[in-house]
Automatic annotation (TrEMBL):
Keyword field: Ribonucleoprotein, Ribosomal protein
SMART domains (alphabetical): Ribosomal_S13_N (SM01386), Ribosomal_S15 (SM01387)
One GO CC term, this protein: cytosolic small ribosomal subunit
Source organism (scientific name): Methanoculleus receptaculi
Start and end residues of each stretch annotated as Disordered: 1-23
Protein name: Small ribosomal subunit protein uS15
Transmembrane segments: none
Domain spans labelled Small ribosomal subunit protein uS15 N-terminal: 1-60
Pfam families, per the entry: Ribosomal_S13_N, Ribosomal_S15
Keyword Cytoplasm (UniProt): no
Basic residues biased stretches: 1-10
Chain's gene name: rps15
GO term, biological process aspect, one: translation
Description of how the protein assembles with itself and partners: Part of the 30S ribosomal subunit.
Length: 152
């Protein structure tokens, strides 16, 4: 299938091996893994960063196989889930960086297009999260207030 904003097809990438249970060499103590996830979140790491730390330092290749829950589910149960979903936050940060760059470099038309693409992705994700109930119904993306939202 073709890319959304480019006239080319994507290259195939690696695929995680299909497993129904955690490998025998991995750490499978669910209570300990949940405790580590909560500690890492309190240290300020996002869900994807927590997954990387668990993989690299604690020998947990897949949290869902080890605990039966995803990282975000564990955070939600303990009241540590962020207000803005991580993928939306990352796109908003990208759009904010592009706006700052364009304020200094007014003739950079290539990055002006990238800003348009990033903000359209943000709007599309906001629609999805509002429909799924993850964000309030009156939530809208405004570039002027995005920096205030991201500093919380």
């Amino acid at each position: 299938m073709a890319r959304m904003y480019a006239r080319r097809r994507g290259t195939s990438g690696s695929v995680r091996p299909y497993r129904k249970e955690a490998p025998e060499w991995s750490n499978t103590d669910a209570a300990e893994i949940e405790k580590i996830i909560i500690e890492l979140r309190k240290d300020g790491l996002s869900a994807s960063q927590i997954g990387l730390v668990l993989r690299d330092r604690h020998a947990v290749p897949d949290v869902r196989l080890a605990t039966g829950k995803r990282i975000t589910e564990i955070l939600r149960e303990n009241g540590l889930e962020s207000e803005i979903p991580e993928d939306l936050r990352n796109l908003m940060e990208k759009a904010l960086r592009l706006r700052k760059h364009l304020a200094e470099n007014k003739k950079d038309h290539h990055n002006l297009r990238q800003l348009q693409i990033a903000e359209s992705k943000v709007r599309r994700l906001v629609n999805y999260y509002v429909k799924s109930g993850r964000l309030p119904a009156d939530w809208t993306y405004k570039p002027e207030t995005a920096e205030i939202l991201l500093t919380r």
